[in-house]
Every structure is written in C-alpha cells, then in structure tokens.
C-alpha cells in the first residue's frame, strides 16, 4: 500500500472548494468570430456575476470556509464590484485567462500578455498578485507551465495526473477531475441531449467522492461556476455537502493556494510524491 499523503493538520483527506467565475467570457471567446443573434445564453451566464455569486458567498460565509475563485480578467473588469466582494469576504483570487482563452489557442507571447494583463487587474483589486492559475476548460499546453513560472505563478490547477498535489516543473499542480466539475451535471443551454441533473444527484455523487477520498487519503477538488451552482437549490445542496464534510472531522478544507504552499513546504517530501518535468508532458515522439 502506498504511503499516505501528509495533509495539513494531519487530516485524512482534503477538500478544495473552487469556482471558475467566468460568466459569459467562455461564450465570448468561443463565438468571437461569429457572434450569435440571440442573447439567451449570454443572459443565462450573466446570472453568475449578477446573482449566483451572492448565493455562493452566502454558502461560504455560513460554512466558514475559504474558497478559491479563478477569475478571467474580462470578468474582473466588467463585474469589478462582484470580484471585490469575493476578495472582501476573504477568498483567494487566481488567474483564469483574460477572456477564457485556452493556452493551446495562443502563442507563448499572447499567453504571457493576457495573463499579465489579468494579473495586473486582480492585483489592483486584492493588493497582491495572484499566485495560482486554472486553464479554461482544463485545456493546458506544455509551454504554458513555463510561462506561468516566468510570471511568478506558484501553482496550477488544470490537469488530472494524480489525486494528490504534485510538481510539474517549478509549479505545484493541484489536480482536478471532470467528475467533480459541476458543468457535467448542470450545464444546459438549450442544445444538449439531456436535461440538467438535479441538485440531489450531484450531492450524492460528490458525497461519494468525499467518502472515497477519506478511504484513499486523496483530494477532492470541486470545480463550480456561479452561473450554475449559484442557483438556490444547488447552493443549498452545496452547503449541505460542505457541512457533511466538516462533520467527518478528518477532512482538511481550504483554498487551493494554501494547499499548494503546504505541498511545496511539506507534501513534496512525502514518499511517492510525483515530480514531473515539463519536457515529458507532450505527445511521445
């Protein structure tokens, strides 16, 4: 049996509650060359920064946890007051591109420029430069890790190579998983082949993920979007989920940046911890 990962406070497993606060920015990027004639999906996505974010912040306040918000620069510019509320509530702000651009869709200089622009704005809002990044749609390029490191970013949370933190080059990777992304359950904009799952279905699935993590000594990294998980019934079930995790008493719950620093200081020295060189990430040749 592999050695247990040394989670903070000697806990048995870990839970990160994170939000990709992207609003309509993914649609603006995806349809930049052929904008649609209707506003239906734009308005649906605008629910996040207008209303959903307040339901989310209420959940976090009532459960007393600190979360991480990955914020595109365009959202911070367009909905600045909402992002300021997130910061004022004590949550971590991290990078998510300027307008939700996947790194593989940009050249290295373009990626550097968009992230610098976004980092400057988030630093203006929070008083410190963001140290974390999540790639839009979990699509990451091998070259992107080097750009992040050059910009002073200390961790990434975009890929799925382990269920514990590990190193990719100079960055701590705090891995994600499609099974713990709310879009798989809730995303419905009118053209999907099935209706969205109910809030209870997601609760049961994610509660099982937490149970599995406690058994295996691993990480559950929840990825949510305020325009989806910020709807009232869904926010209520999220609160119940966090409360259930808290009741176990052996699950560390905190921001991604805090876990990344723990790994840099302590976890990387644990037996079995991965250290992946960036030049091994691409397709084998």
From TrEMBL:
<protein>
    <recommendedName>
        <fullName>NodB homology domain-containing protein</fullName>
    </recommendedName>
</protein>
<dbReference type="GO" id="GO:0016810">
    <property type="term" value="F:hydrolase activity, acting on carbon-nitrogen (but not peptide) bonds"/>
</dbReference>
<dbReference type="InterPro" id="IPR002509">
    <property type="entry name" value="NODB_dom"/>
</dbReference>
<dbReference type="Pfam" id="PF01522">
    <property type="entry name" value="Polysacc_deac_1"/>
</dbReference>
<dbReference type="InterPro" id="IPR011330">
    <property type="entry name" value="Glyco_hydro/deAcase_b/a-brl"/>
</dbReference>
<dbReference type="GO" id="GO:0005975">
    <property type="term" value="P:carbohydrate metabolic process"/>
</dbReference>
<feature type="domain" description="NodB homology">
    <location>
        <begin position="37"/>
        <end position="254"/>
    </location>
</feature>
